Amino acid sequence: MSGDEGGSHLSENTDSTAGDSAATGTTPAVGGATADAGTRGSRRGRRKKKAGWLKVTLLTLLSMVLVIVLAFVGFALYLNHVLTSNIKHGAALPTAAIPAAKDAGDAQNILLIGSDTRSGSVTNTRQNARSDVIQLVHISAGQKSVQIIHFPRDLYVAIPGHGKNKINASFAYGGPALLAQTVSNLLGGLTINRYAIIDFKGFADLTNDLGGVNVYVAQAFSEPGFGTFHKGYNKMNGDQALGFVRERHQLAEGDIDRGRDQQAWIAAVLHKTLSAGTLLNPLKLTETVKDLTKYTEVDQGTSAGDLRGLAFDLRNLRSGDVTYFTAPFTGFGMNPVAGSIDIVNVPQMKKLGQALYHDKMAEYTNGRNDIR
């Protein structure tokens, strides 16, 4: 084979390849690169669209969260305004006779007082009024549990500066400060950290704000001016609840049983208040806060911030964490000045004082009430 023949052969092969490429309309090497570039461009486009969609979604979600946060903050500020504007302050509490027990931690005692006035004005809660509701609320260390102790208004006790009389006479003599001092002395000098007085109209309005409450009635009764109730659960509106917590004449143990009925109402209110239907309903929650404060007076040392902090600390509390008691007594008697009285069980009262002082109420069982 000559050189010319070899060159001619190569030329023919090259021409053939070129012809094939021309016939198919493709250039193998260059055409492959173009296809890859197109695929990469398509992928980049899809990634850009996806990134854009994610950005829009995230911005939308962030905007929604921001609106919710702003609404929540605005609502919280409004509730704070309601609380600060409505709450009234009364006399300061007396200085504790003995320092708080170290083993009690941050446990505290709040005296809850119900005034029998129905004036609709907290400023009149002490004018010619009696304390028909005297309940001591003990909040355990760490806010893990609450004990509510009813002090019957006819308990015959020593009142500082006034000799012996029914315990509710101390309220008439010297308002909530003297009543707190009387209860403290009765319990061996226990520190009363706060007090709160609520007008009876507040009882009624609070009940109505909650849409009524289901109260368990242990003893059926029917009395003009107080209402008619069957044994078992009764759905009560404000006026019905007010008659229920005031009735004592037809109850087997009079004021003792009235205190238990008051605790049954408290239990029903707690159950309704702590339910999601109230806490997550802005309108209902606002009205509840309004009526909890509009007819309420607290001691001079309790601020709106203290009440907010207390509410926050008790946020995990449930109805099952609350137990109810009646302060110990041995029976009933008559006094020529005071009239019918409840006689204090002194040894048991001392034990109750120690259980409260050392935050050991889990070990105290005397006078425990079965409140549903």
TrEMBL record:
The keyword Membrane applies. Belongs to the LytR/CpsA/Psr (LCP) family. The chain crosses the membrane at residues 53-79. Keywords: Membrane, Transmembrane, Transmembrane helix. It holds the Pfam family LytR_cpsA_psr. Residues 130-273 form the Cell envelope-related transcriptional attenuator domain. This is LytR family transcriptional regulator. The keyword Oxidoreductase does not apply. InterPro entries: LytR/CpsA/Psr_CW_biosynth (IPR050922), LytR_CpsA_psr (IPR004474). It comes from the Bacteria. Residues 1-46 are annotated as: Disordered. Residues 14-40 have a biased composition (Low complexity).
